[in-house]
Design a protein that fits this description.
This protein is an all-beta fold. Among the domains are: about 110 residues, Lipocalin (Beta Barrel); about 80 residues, no CATH class. The chain has one helix and 36 strands. The strands form two sheets. The chain has a 34-stranded antiparallel beta sheet that branches. Strands 32-33 form a two-stranded antiparallel ribbon. A hairpin with a 5-residue loop joins strand 25 and strand 26. The two termini are about 30 Å apart.
Length: about 550
């Protein structure tokens, strides 16, 4: 979509109108309606590129309501005129604001609060407070109120890295308050590269506030390539503001193929509401690229852009095989937009396993049905064949149903298994998995248990995975334990696409400037068993 808007937060399924009183004296002026291309969520909520009805007719835009000098409502409007989302804003006493976000169905998405000292917190519908892995964010603002520096912190106020590996992100805005650059830094101000192998992003923005080019730079200010091997990316839009193409470029502005593919450009097609209907990977010659992992994607959408189907096809529209996954999926959505049923098909359009589409058992789990709690969290998944008969979810030794429990932060704390009669059963040799997290929401342990509650393994000889983090809260080591609490000397564990070597008790993630450059597997005494060079991003590593 072509609206220039930051992503923000939500809490409950029903809005409490008492939070938003609406009392107006008879002689007060009415609220003012503003049309804009985008907005800035800074010290205040502010429109960006204010425009008029004629200029945005048939285009993505924002409709803002200003009352008593402050923005109180932001509506995201599709080219058809449909309202895609609402942000209800109220000022906080002293300073800051609170914003409740709901989607076009009227379902709450999140609540975001900017309080004193630039501290921003959020709670989404599922109870999660995390933004890019951060329990809270602290912003610094320039004289215009733009958020020019963002620091990732845990709930106690300690600085930590976000999911991209940045403790601090600094942003630059032009005089029209359009974002034109951002960079990744450590807490002391040292330049860092993020998960895309980029330190700084420069954005070229058009008159509609749409980014038409992004350039990538390293810590020394030199142009560099991102994780896909692109030095720059160019973007094209249609008249409504929908992105219709994104192209990988080299440093001379020539189109180049994305790393590991002959694809140069992704082309996109939308409906009148701006909902994505088609994605096509295209080569430098303009031909559609079809390979084992690259296909044309066709989407079905409801009136709210909810995905009701997806199909992997070739240039002629014929279904193609997808490794270990269905070729076509049909979805049924409830009134909140949650998927309550999924039906899966192979390249011949016959029923196929949704979770692991293999020829030997297409009748198993070709239909999955889901149940959610009142916060939109999946708590049950049951498997059926195409005729509606209960089956295993995956392989022969997997059960009919998987149930999930969460903590108050929306993090999964338990997965357990049940047969068609609702009795506890085993998935392999494990009846349930238990997850534990630290205060920042990072997983520190993952362990399997049997029906009797005793430690169990899933056939890998590994009962538990334990993770530790460094002072920046980057993952620093992962170790394995057997059911006796010791270190398994012989196992067949594959972890994050890396085969764990026999004799290794743990893997140490060695970093340079925050970036993982090696996996060093060591035995229980700390002696190196194997080292894996991780400088090449195409190499599978634990990062």
């Amino acid at each position: 979509m072509g609206v220039l808007s930051a992503s923000v937060g939500c809490s409950h399924n029903q809005r409490d109108e008492r939070d938003f009183p609406s009392v107006r004296a008879e002689d007060e002026p009415p609220p003012e309606t503003i049309l804009a291309r985008g907005m800035v969520e800074g010290l205040d909520i502010a429109p960006v590129l204010v425009t008029d009805p004629a200029a945005v007719k048939g285009q993505h835009h924002l409709r803002l309501t200003r009352d008593h000098g402050r923005i109180t409502l932001v509506e995201e409007v599709a080219p058809s005129g449909a309202v895609r989302s609402k942000r209800i804003v109220r000022a906080l006493e002293g300073a800051g604001w609170e914003m409740h976000v709901e989607d076009s169905r009227g379902t709450f998405v999140e609540t975001v609060t900017l309080g004193k000292g630039g501290v921003q917190t959020r709670i989404d519908r599922q109870g999660s407070p995390f933004v890019s892995g951060c329990p809270r964010l602290v912003f610094e603002h320039d004289a215009a109120g733009n958020p020019v520096e963002r620091t990732c912190q845990d709930a106690a106020g300690r600085t930590m890295v976000d999911l991209d590996g940045c403790e601090v992100v600094r942003s630059t805005y032009d005089e029209q308050r359009r974002l034109v650059a951002s960079g990744c830094f450590a807490r002391g101000g040292e330049a860092r590269r993020d998960a895309e192998n980029v330190h700084r992003y420069d954005y070229q923005v058009d008159e509609r506030g749409l980014t038409i080019r992004t350039s990538f730079f390293d810590e020394a200010g030199r142009e560099t390539t991102n994780a896909d091997g692109c030095t720059r990316m160019s973007f094209a839009y249609d008249a409504s503001g929908d992105k219709v193409a994104e192209t990988c470029l080299d440093r001379d502005d020539n189109p180049r193929s994305v790393r590991g593919s002959s694809k140069v450009t992704d082309r996109f097609t939308y409906d009148e509401n701006g909902c994505l209907l088609k994605s096509e990977p295209v080569s430098a010659s303009g031909a559609v690229v079809i390979s084992e992992n690259t296909h044309v994607l066709l989407y079905g959408r409801d009136a709210h852009c909810g995905e009701t189907s997806v199909a992997h096809v070739d240039a002629t529209g014929k279904l193609v095989p997808v490794p270990f996954a269905p070729s076509r999926i049909l979805r049924v959505l409830d009134r909140n937009g949650d998927v309550i049923e999924k039906r899966c098909f192979d390249a011949a359009d016959a029923p196929a396993e949704c979770q692991w589409a293999v020829e030997r058992a297409p009748q198993k789990g070709s239909v999955l049905r889901y149940v959610y709690d009142d916060r939109g969290r999946e708590i049950s998944c049951k498997a059926f064949d195409a005729q509606g008969n209960p089956t295993d979810i995956l392989y022969d030794n997997y059960p009919h149903e998987e149930r999930t429990r969460y903590d108050d932060r929306g993090l999964v704390v338990e997965e357990s298994y049940f047969d068609a009669d609702g009795a506890p059963t085993l998935a392999g040799d494990v009846a349930r998995y238990i997850y534990r997290y630290d205060e920042a929401g990072a997983r520190i342990s993952f362990a399997g248990f049997g029906l009797d509650g005793a430690p169990a393994d899933d056939g890998t000889e590994v009962h538990a995975l334990l993770t530790t983090y460094d002072e920046r809260h980057q993952r620093s080591a992962v170790e394995i334990r057997d059911t006796e609490g010791g270190y398994p000397s012989d196992q067949n564990l594959r972890y994050e696409d890396v085969s764990w070597p026999n004799g290794a008790a743990r893997v140490l993630l060695e970093r340079e400037a925050g970036y993982v450059v090696a996996n060093r597997f060591v035995d229980p005494m700390g002696k190196t068993v194997r080292t894996r060079d991780c400088r090449d991003r195409d190499i599978a590593c634990i990062r």
